[in-house]
Amino acid sequence: MSQQSENPAGGEASAPGADGEGFGGGELVLLVDRKNRSYLRRLEPGGFFHSHSGLVAWDDLLGRPEGSEVRSIGGTRFQAFRPTLSDFVVKMKRGAQVIYPKDLGPMLLLADIAPGHRVLESGVGSGALSLALLRAGAEVFGYEIRGDFARRARKNVQEFLGTDALSRYHISERDCYDGIDVEDLDRVALDLPEPWRVVPHAAGRLRPGGLLIAYTPSVLQATQLRESLERGPWALAATVEVLQRSWHIAGEAVRPDHRMIAHTGFLTHARRLPT
Ligand code: SAH
User: Fold this and answer.
1) Strand 139-144 versus strand 118-122 pairing type
2) Does any ligand 1 atom lie closer than 6 A to the CB of residue 120?
3) CA of residue 124 to ligand 1 center, whole Å
4) Strand partners, 174
5) How far is CA 14 from the centre of its chain?
């Protein structure tokens, strides 16, 4: 990828703009230059985006539709879009390492996340998985041992989904290995070092038919998790790895890109049986 990663400017989070409407003050904007470098910023009326080739006046964008072009004083052109969830996840401020869009998308379907689902998520980290779960309409109960990460995750959720989403996002600063307090869970989503230590707690809180999904960077973690699922009450356990290869398509030059991300993690999922 030739994208340059930049953190979004902080500032007050405002609700995401409505699709089809022109840009408004306080919104997140993704500015993309001709070389596909992108910058995530908040639109400040009366203010400027400081690009490598000089200032871009935010007022030039106010009220205009997505895809509009703006120019810096130095003549560089940028197209402006509202960031997608993927754009935001790769550029947002991080505490812990995030799960990337390549895995977030499949995780939503493997765990069959639906609006209204009660989901226990641990650890919360930077909130990338939280964002995906909340975007799909779930109510998320997050267990995170580090207070600074929990605060970062909450801020990221507020920045992208707006303050309203926080009413469905409940983070507790606690160790998930000690147990789960939340009852009537539909789903459990794990991204922590020893997910097998959560399996017995998850079995006690998930409804029959409920799903557990875990992301593990190492296959040794995946096998240890599978062994704990074997001890029941679980069915349909499976582990997958998602490979994504991008292509270079320019006229006659049509081939896979030279570089790809060869490994991120393994996704293991299983369903809770009645006891
Ligand atoms: N899925 C997250 C990243 C999680 S990183 C994202 O997409 O942004 C793993 C997180 O698990 C770290 O923040 C770490 O502090 C937390 N963690 C590790 N052990 C834990 C435990 N026993 N209970 C709760 N959180 C834990």
Assistant:
1) parallel
2) no
3) 5
4) none
5) 19
The count of other CB atoms within 10 Å of the CB of residue 29 is: 22
By alpha-carbon position, which residue is closest to atom 13 of ligand 1? 125
The Cα–Cα gap between 1 and 56 comes to 25
Residue 226, token pair as written in the block: 């599978």
Residue among 156, 191, 198, 213 to mutate when testing ligand 1 (max atoms within 8 A of CB): 191
Dihedral of CA 28/140/264/254: which sign? negative
- What pTM was computed for the model? 0.94
Rounded CA-CA distance 58/250 in Å is 33
List the structure tokens of 107: 């995780």
Tokens of 43: 């639109």
Pull the structure tokens for residue 25.
Answer: 């003050």
Assigned token pair, 275? 């006891």
Q: Is the CB of 127 under 6 A from ligand 1?
A: yes
144 Cβ closer than 6 Å to some ligand 1 atom: yes
Could you tell me the two tokens for 266?
A: 């393994």
3-state secondary structure of 187: strand
Closest CA to 79 of 101, 95, 99, 56: 56
| Residue 214 main-chain phi, psi, to 5 deg | -135, 140
If you take atom 5 of ligand 1, which residue's CA is the nearest one? 125
| Cα 134 to averaged position of ligand 1 atoms, centre (Å) | 17
β-pair type (139-144, 169-173): parallel
Report CA(97)–ligand 1 centroid distance (Å): 9
Q: Rounded distance, CA 44 to CA 243, Å?
A: 39
pLDDT for 150-189, tens place per residue? 999 999 999 999 999 999 999 999 999 999 999 999 999 9
Tell the burial category of 175 from Cβ atoms under 10 Å away from its Cβ (0-12, 13-18, 19+): middle
Helix (H) or strand (E) holding 204: helix 199-205
Tens of pLDDT along 200-216?
A: 999 999 999 999 999 99
